[in-house]
Amino acid sequence: MICYVLLCSGWTLPPVHQIIYLCIEINIKYTLKFRKIHLILLCLLSGSLLSLGWPERGFPGLLFIGFVPLLIVEEQIYRYPERFIKFSALFYSYPGFFLWNLLTTWWIVNSTFVGAVMAIVLNSLFMAIVFQGFHWTRKKLNSPVAGYASLLAYWVAFEYLHLNWDLNWPWLNMGNGFATYYKWVQWYEYTGALGGTVWVLVANILVFALVDNWQNAKCKVQSANEAPNIQNSKFVIQYSILIFSWIVLPIAFSYYSYATYTEKKNPVNIVVVQPNIDPYNEQYNLPPQAVIGRIMSLAAASLDSTTNFLVAPESAIQEDMWENELSRFTSMRMLQQAISPYPGLNLLIGASTHYQLAPGEPLRRGARKFTDTDGHYYAYNTAILLNNRDSLQLYHKSKLTPGVEILPSFKGFKWLENFAIDLGGTVGSLAMDTGPKVYSTVNTARVAPAICYESIFGEFFAGFVREGAQIMFIITNDGWWGKTAGHRQHFTFAHLRAIETRRSIARSANTGISAFIDQRGDEHQETAYWVPAVIKGTLNANDKLTFYVKHGDYIARFLSYLAGVLILTAIGMSVKHKFFKSRLRA
Question: What pTM was computed for the model?
Fold first, then answer.
């Protein structure tokens, strides 16, 4: 039954049940005749399964068994500790996690070799440390329930950390794996993407329990030459039903939600521009007149008196503008002149800006010192909204890309500035805004921008909606990664943000993919990559808040607390064991 579920989308790779059987047979075969090389191969099998299940061309059904080979390896280390060194769970799992990271995010190398190496090597190490922590906790607590609960709690806490610290890299958070098959996870409006992580991990633990029981029963039958145990057959049937229900019922509920969800009519007319400015050879060399001219010439035929918004991509303006006197710069004057014939038009565009601090003004993180004076300034990745009524409204990107826009603030990490990635703009740590901002607009819905990398952060994205955003814009520049899976994965993640918040999204990407995404996650008028384009459409504004928007990543906060309890309990048990051991020796 479970195989039927995993195969329901027409997967063309070897059947899932064959992979499960392979895991079982390998585990049975080498239970008595142990070979460590086969454990490494099992870990690599996990890395392959997780990679084959990843967006945007993978089949996410594989995620439900992707951890099973790793759990088989951990079981061997747990049963036969005398055959392994202290950190074997880390050393054996690392190749699998490295393979997963390599096959899914290798495209980072197109923008920076050093950044790609650090992202892949470090993230794989973090994952292996989490896995080692699970093994250590299971061993210290000597309880299957507490042990596998620690895997769930530690992994979700790790993903939550990845959403909230300087080395944030939530790209491979497990719940993102359903970004292409978003019709499976319409229930993210209640749980967010971290609910998908729980879904996947529990499924893997259940499948492993079935595999392990099957293996143990078969080994007993083979060694004792006995007939199959009826009690064990009941266990297999019951667990198969449980696994089937755990996987299928959320999918069934999701398809029902997708089919019955109806948007309230509240139309907003939007024009999205994809200027296709080469970030390597044009973006930082073209004069402002050429950039603005290209954007407005593309948009001209689509603008009329009913257009509410014109959206242009991240970092489109590279005029080295100072916010202290922003309106005097050529780009701003040209844009104000371009929108003057349209009294109801609001224009959103990305720019690199700076702000000079007044003498005595407190310094926040990201402050930079002028080389020739004692003054300080901030550098920002900015989204600017202009219209014919209000002064310029600014939002500064607050979820910054590690190694490009932010460097770790931890003591001793100053040396990393030598490896900051120069993408043609400002280098090193940028300053951030004080919180999510929602623009006031002319006679239309309230909107907010997520700038590039920010669209991966579910709770952060939901913060704009809590502040009153009725429609969301994503402005990005994905040309750094070339025609690889990178820009396609980034695009698919927007489906999840639309579902979590039930907000329509207009996405403007410099080189593609630009599109409109409705409140169910369906994309419309998707543009081709690396082609100049303009699209015009209508999205419905929404002012209702989903359960996830109201409560954020509550699942992660609870499991992070549980992780702390489990760690402290395991430490306590370890200390108690050492104490009694020392007393016995005495």
Answer: 0.91
